[in-house]
Input
Amino acid sequence: MSRIKQIKVNAIRNGTVIDHITAGKVRKVLDILELDGKEIVMVGMNLSSKKLNRKDIVKIENKELSHNEVNSIALVAPNATLTIINDFGVVKKVSLEIPEYIENLIVCPNPKCITNSEDIKSKFRLTKDEPVKVRCHYCEKKYLIDEVKIKK
Amino acid sequence: MKNLISMRDLSKKEILHLMNIASKIEEGKIVPDMQRKLAALLFFEPSTRTMFSFDTAMKRMNGDTIIMSGTGQTSVKKGETFADTLQTIAQYSDIIIMRSSIEGSARFASEIVDIPVVNAGDGANQHPTQALLDLYSIVKTQGTLENLSIGLAGDLRFGRTVHSLAQAMALFNVKFKFISPSFLKMPQYIKDDLKLQGVKFEEYENMEGNIDDLDILYVTRVQKERFADPEDYEKVKGSYILEKTMLSNVKENFKVMHPLPRVDEIHTDVDNTEFAYYFPQAKNGVYTRQAIISTLLGEV
Output
């Protein structure tokens, strides 16, 4: 990490860094994170990036993300990288990918879909469309990722 | 095949197999016996035609039916969940045939009961038995499902029948003409699917002048209530009414199909021409539904 970035967004001792978030999507990422209000969270918006030109970043002290949080973040910020930090060192770094099969993470935007009237888990699959879409297993409608709401 | 929920679940091989069974049932070469079998016809959204067609199909095979039409007389009205209603009915019957305005309801039903489920229409989503009877009608009149030129006319936006048919025909190297008012065009998600499958289609706003090179013209009703301004309806309605005079240059093998009920989109003067096929099409529905029920119950 360059010195300039370190000044803009402080390093953390232990916790998780979500980097390379598409610029403008950090609010959605924060919505997904199950935070109890006590964590130290640092947010950078519109930072310059070689990979994305502009990017957002979130650093959270003393938190590891759940499986659901990781999959949900992959949906709203598919280019993001996740780094787990221990004692200022990188323990693990992964690039996020949208899962092929998405269970109980998305609210189907179709008000007539059974998932919005019965107490059942939503199920979606990625389609081959460009840009990528998800298709509801039940009502079979396809949506752009930006059109769907992530469950909390 | 354990259930019939969506045309998207069926392979070309499975479709052709069902067509073959329907044909053999029609010719009397297969006589499925449904004696002691009970079909539950759960029509949460009322329908006379599709319900009668299933009822007839079951009774023509010596089977029996229990029928629920609407939710007025049932415990759904008392607040029972959809899931509980289905699981109870599944204790009484051998197969559930259901229609609902809730999209995905038949898929959900198939996941919670252990008897076969047939989707008889779920909102604007799927109506696979209609699509299969349409395919059966096409193969009967054209001798093949391959390489045909098919016009779909009328309300292509809200009609689940044309959606299911378009998806099904996509497997057979079809060429489509979509003929509709601009705001009742085939939905983008269906067109995207067709493009991904390499299906050729063109879009038009007039029936006249666009039917002479077709093998099949599938007409659906443009409903007045879809238009916000009644004047807009009056302006376009004439473009979607088929009359006998428009048929003078059509191909010899040309047939007009319609899922019925018809209102005024096909003039009655077409009925007595060799091109009208909508009433035999309804009869084909019984053979097709016999084939579906007997296949799902393992009787053929």
About this structure: The CA atoms of residues 109 and 212 of chain B lie 44 Å apart.
